[in-house]
Amino acid sequence: MKQKQTIGSSLFWWVLGGVLLMGVVIGCGSDGGSGESVEGSQIVSDISYVDDGVDRHRLDIYGPLEGDGAKVLLFVPGGAWRQGDKDHYAEMATALSSHGFVVAVINYRLSNDMDGMAIHPDHVNDVAMAFKWVVENISSYHGDPASVFLFGQSAGAHLVALLATDETYLKAVGYGVSNIRGVIAMSGAFALSDFVSYPANPLDLELDDTLLYKAIFANAFGSWDESVIGPASPARHVKASQPPFLLIHTEYDMPGFVEDATHFHDSILSKALSVEIRGLKRSDYSDETWSKATELAAAEPLLADYIGHYAEVVAINNKEYDKVPTTWIVDFVDGR
User: Burial code of 166-188, b = ≥16 C-beta within 10 A, e = fewer?
Assistant: First the structure.
């Protein structure tokens, strides 16, 4: 029986990240998925990537109606490992698929009573199984199984980075990191212990920040102890065999995220491996995007000051398809 540490009732289980976007919900079909076409593209919803009847083991596919060999983005949503849903990312997925990619957006079991009571490594094991399904089936949706890129935001960024650095999870489903063409990690947590260390915190976090992260980690990992979250940290597993990384962070992000991304970048670079890092500023966002992100942040009072954490995904939309961060992602994928 997995046990969780508790640190008192004064902390709520708020999100570490993820964007609760009011996106378009498309389809609610059977295990085989339901589909429709929109302006020369197809959207196939609710495909089971594991034949086990678990509702969270589903994904949606956005992509072209014809052709072969399109590059593939497998997107993993964020939400502190305890919330988030693929249906909220429809506009992001259609914006990226308009650049010629096949985009698969997945759900996975979450650390809450309604969605699986997941505790690490349940989340990353689900992502590994979704990856296996994509590699083995994406050619039926005009994608190239040899060109699968992982993309995640917040908790999703942690999961794709862990999958691409610690080969344990992919080996369990018959694959390896060599099957990943590249990784886009947006505002993730890479060295988990750095978020809970106090008083000498390497990310310059305050006590209240570390207590919040302890609560989040206890809920998702069962503990904030180094023996648990250390091995679950992508920064612990940096190695020569890993694929290229694009790290994206933003101004007005969650406490410590920019510093953690910088440290992770420097660790990868110190081993002469392929990594890029890009930082979004307030001036990179349109007023419309910032306004929408402000509304979303206000719905989570504890996160109301971290508008950038919402804006970075809101900015990937059909109106701003030719602006950052979309163009950074497109350039990274097209260059490999």
Answer: bbebbeebebebebbbbbbbbbb
